[in-house]
């Protein structure tokens, strides 16, 4: 199993939409290396013919009747949003200057 | 007992229910006694993140009014309760111990919160926890440190440490916790309480803030096995709003607890798990914990149970499998905190684009353990590593489940210590994830297999509580309650009082 470098952590943080400080990069790279070393033992398990288990209970597709029921009121939902405008959630800019 | 406020906060739920039903105390008196105790003592313990003073007194007054008008009330009407702060409650702040949800007021309530309210219980407030339930000590809360009432320099367990400190410290008669890798059972063990993780899917997860969806399960934390069973019956059962909810009636759990307390375990086959503290597997286990476990097993044998040792070789792989599966699911679940629809938004100054705002929001809103697990989960799920880590861990999960299946062919329940150690000092492990994760050693197998497991006090080691874990097959939760109640009754009778009674009331707090 491979180890995690500082630049790996920076890449993973970008994929996770997580800004990290230089200090955190140093800290996480060391700690994640230790964690990965500790969990590497799963690779030694003899599981070639073992099916994976995702859930403790068998999952089936659960459908409810297709009926219109009341949902949360718009003002109630917007009250929890960080920014709202004209009855809608206001989002940060999506397109950059060049687009 | 006619009710000084100190008596009321030391009573268990069964006693409170009797006093309320007989009209010997009012719901307002019971609630006020707890609110007074919180005001006097929570500065020392830090159990609550939010105390719902006014709302609690208003719902207690409504119960008293209904009773006065002759309405038919359930046995729990007027009994106070505390909820871990990831149980979503309409109009009451819910943060999951994270800054990213600071100030958020949920627009709806979790099914278990609704069921407790319908039973007439009174919500005292929301209890502290490790951020997004990630941790074994409650030191990862973004808000405050919670202290163990037995020794305030030590951890109250995690991640439901606020719930355990509230109940053990007599700031609530019982509480809700959630358990992903042991977060109900461990805090119960280190504070001298009973904590039960129900069969996965038997208590609704609708309205619980998700950490690792295939493992998360809410359950009761209480001072007695009977109280835990009673709460489980209130919150459990099928919920059409949760697609993983099992549509099978609950067993009669409170009856099983009463039956166990009668003290006859003849015909019950108990397996002691060798891999959890047995011979050759004692590294990391404190001698006092192993001694209390051995004594508890002797007590159970003395009540007629047939005890054997069983081997579950795959349990040695539970810890590594868990620390791949849980972070993987967490990295996915926590993607919803992006600063757009609810919660914190940081850096939105009109010049930054959406990606930057999301990254800054998550940087500011999440603490180190949450970030560490998001990054680890993202790694374990990434192309090229998926098979070696996440896929392999899911297969190990099958092996662990098969070990349980083989064991339960021969025995009715399995037992082990709940935690390898007593409560450790605050700060002792906080910078060392590996030693922190070791606290989860005994609780993870039942989590990965989705099986019910209870922690019941088994005595003290150096003046600190130790818990015995009792595990049962899926949907056989009643076996946990029966065996745990038998141990509790026998040990209470032998010492002449409850273990928790050895924890006195701090001066000036009554």
Automatic annotation (TrEMBL), chain A:
Source organism of the structure: Modestobacter marinus
Name listed for the protein in its UniProt record: Aspartyl/glutamyl-tRNA(Asn/Gln) amidotransferase subunit C
Entry-linked NCBIfam families: gatC
Single Gene Ontology MF annotation: ATP binding
A single BP term in Gene Ontology: glutaminyl-tRNAGln biosynthesis via transamidation
Enzyme class label: ligase
Keywords, alphabetical: ATP-binding, Ligase, Nucleotide-binding, Protein biosynthesis, Transferase
Signal sequence annotation: none
Catalytic activity: L-aspartyl-tRNA(Asn) + L-glutamine + ATP + H2O = L-asparaginyl-tRNA(Asn) + L-glutamate + ADP + phosphate + 2 H(+); L-glutamyl-tRNA(Gln) + L-glutamine + ATP + H2O = L-glutaminyl-tRNA(Gln) + L-glutamate + ADP + phosphate + H(+)
SUBUNIT field: Heterotrimer of A, B and C subunits.
Matches recorded under Gene3D superfamilies: Glu-tRNAGln amidotransferase C subunit, N-terminal domain
E.C. number(s) listed in UniProt: 6.3.5.-
Role this protein plays: Allows the formation of correctly charged Asn-tRNA(Asn) or Gln-tRNA(Gln) through the transamidation of misacylated Asp-tRNA(Asn) or Glu-tRNA(Gln) in organisms which lack either or both of asparaginyl-tRNA or glutaminyl-tRNA synthetases. The reaction takes place in the presence of glutamine and ATP through an activated phospho-Asp-tRNA(Asn) or phospho-Glu-tRNA(Gln).
Chain segments annotated as coiled-coil in the UniProt record: none
Similarity section: Belongs to the GatC family.
Pfam families membership: GatC
Alphabetical list of PANTHER family matching this protein: GLUTAMYL-TRNA(GLN) AMIDOTRANSFERASE SUBUNIT C, MITOCHONDRIAL (PTHR15004)
InterPro entries associated with the record: Asp/Glu-ADT_sf_sub_c (IPR036113), GatC (IPR003837)
Origin superkingdom: Bacteria
Automatic annotation (TrEMBL), chain B:
A Pfam family that the UniProt record links to this protein: Amidase
Subunit structure: Heterotrimer of A, B and C subunits.
Family in the record: Belongs to the amidase family. GatA subfamily.
Organismal lineage: Bacteria, Bacillati, Actinomycetota, Actinomycetes, Geodermatophilales
Enzyme class: ligase
Ribonucleoprotein listed as a keyword: no
Catalytic activity reported: L-glutamyl-tRNA(Gln) + L-glutamine + ATP + H2O = L-glutaminyl-tRNA(Gln) + L-glutamate + ADP + phosphate + H(+)
EC number: 6.3.5.7
Entry function: Allows the formation of correctly charged Gln-tRNA(Gln) through the transamidation of misacylated Glu-tRNA(Gln) in organisms which lack glutaminyl-tRNA synthetase. The reaction takes place in the presence of glutamine and ATP through an activated gamma-phospho-Glu-tRNA(Gln).
Species of the source: Modestobacter marinus
MF-aspect GO terms: ATP binding; glutaminyl-tRNA synthase (glutamine-hydrolyzing) activity; transferase activity
A cellular-component GO term for this protein: glutamyl-tRNA(Gln) amidotransferase complex
InterPro entries: Amidase, Amidase_CS, Amidase_dom, AS_sf, GatA
Top-rank taxon, per record: Bacteria
Residues covered by the Amidase domain: 29-480
PANTHER family assigned to the protein according to its UniProt record, in alphabetical order: GLUTAMYL-TRNA(GLN) AMIDOTRANSFERASE SUBUNIT A, TRANSAMIDASE
Region forming the signal peptide: none
Keywords, alphabetical: ATP-binding, Ligase, Nucleotide-binding, Protein biosynthesis, Transferase
Any GO BP: translation
Name under which the protein is recorded: Glutamyl-tRNA(Gln) amidotransferase subunit A
List of catalytic residues: 84 (charge relay system), 159 (charge relay system), 183 (acyl-ester intermediate)
